[in-house]
Write a structure and sequence with these properties.
heterodimer; A: 227 residues; alpha/beta; six-stranded parallel sheet; four-stranded antiparallel sheet; 10 strands; B: 109 residues; alpha+beta; five-stranded antiparallel sheet
């Protein structure tokens, strides 16, 4: 690998651009492929699939092994509510290679000092999500318990292809939440995307344990292990 | 791959080491058959003095990979290594259930 290729690869990763490092394994010659690069038809199909499935693999191209190493930007976790659970959740997201963003319109909560090295947006969730544009590589966890913040966050998240949407709260408060959202015109099929009560059932009690249960559920969803 | 305050970023480390004047090589898992503790794309960066960061398996093939990477730094050539592990010996080399793993080693030039 050439030093200049490594520099360009790191640069693309810092800018959160999806890029593939392609290497002929026989000669070692390698180069970068960006998402919108023009490629011949066969390679374009394999490259598109590698980006989409987020799966690095070795191809056989005319009898030569070509390794496609996929560097997609990290999966994002949008955490609505700069609450105690969010502090642990942001750390766990980082540990598992995800990119956390905290959203909270309340100044006292949205204090960046409580979230070292994490992006904190002091904003209403509908505005924040309109800017963040959740895609199919984004998870949204809604944690405030306050309908004025949680509900618009869920409505905005349900209007996106986010691969995971979870909402903190007991069964009872979740049932009430679904009633409110139904009043807002959401149908049952859409609301079925919300995981509530949020997190895998590991008997979590402390904020840290709740964060762990949420993180476990997000990982399960990312790996296609969630119904 | 992730940028993270908690995990070391292998490619950033490779660039930093190179910038500090070290000669380095990268080892990458390019194929796996059977069960394998690290997915395709996992990387290890190796310095000429034998320091390394990252992993391409659960543990014990690292020593062989580091040695091969130092040779690659020496002669400037790439190589492809393959490790096959029987179920009986799997635990010794850290491949949890046996399997084959292919590792591509390339010097940074």
């Amino acid at each position: 690998m050439k030093g200049a290729t490594l520099t360009a690869l790191n640069e693309a990763r810092r800018k959160r651009e999806g890029v593939i490092h392609a290497t002929w394994l026989d000669s070692g010659e390698s180069w970068l492929i960006c998402r919108d690069d023009a490629l011949d038809a066969d390679l374009a199909r394999d490259v598109g699939q590698a980006f989409r499935l987020d799966q690095s693999r070795t191809l056989d191209v005319g009898g030569r092994p070509l390794f496609l190493h996929v560097f997609n930007p990290p999966v994002r976790l949008i955490i609505v509510g700069a609450v105690h659970v969010a502090q642990s959740l942001a750390v766990l997201a980082r540990t598992t290679g995800m990119d956390p963003v905290i959203v909270d319109p309340r100044r006292a909560w949205a204090d960046a000092r409580r979230f070292p090295d994490v992006r904190v947006m002091e904003a209403w969730p509908d505005d924040a999500l309109a800017r963040l544009k959740p895609d199919h590589r984004t998870a949204v966890a809604v944690l405030t318990h306050d309908p004025r913040i949680d509900d618009p966050a869920l409505i905005a998240a349900l209007d996106s292809p986010a691969f995971y949407i979870g909402a903190l709260g007991s069964r009872r408060s979740h049932a009430r939440r679904l009633e409110r959202l139904a009043d807002e015109g959401l149908d049952g099929l859409a609301m079925a995307r919300i995981h509530g009560p949020v997190g895998l059932d590991i008997g979590a009690r402390s904020a840290e344990e709740i964060a762990l249960s949420i993180m476990a559920e997000v990982v399960a969803a990312r790996n296609g292990k969630l119904q | 791959m992730a940028e993270s305050g908690l995990m070391e970023d292998i490619l950033e480390t490779a660039e930093a080491w190179s910038g500090d004047g070290h000669r380095v090589a990268l080892a990458t898992v390019t194929r796996t058959w059977g069960s394998s503790p690290r997915p395709v794309g996992s990387q290890l960066v190796v310095r000429q003095d034998g320091s390394f960061r990252g992993s391409v398996s659960g543990g014990c093939i690292e020593a062989a990979v580091v040695e091969s990477a130092r040779e690659a730094i020496g002669d400037g050539r790439v190589r492809t290594l393959e490790f096959t592990v029987s179920n009986e010996r799997a635990w010794e080399v850290g491949l949890t259930c046996g399997g084959t793993i292919q590792v591509f080693v390339a010097p940074l030039i």
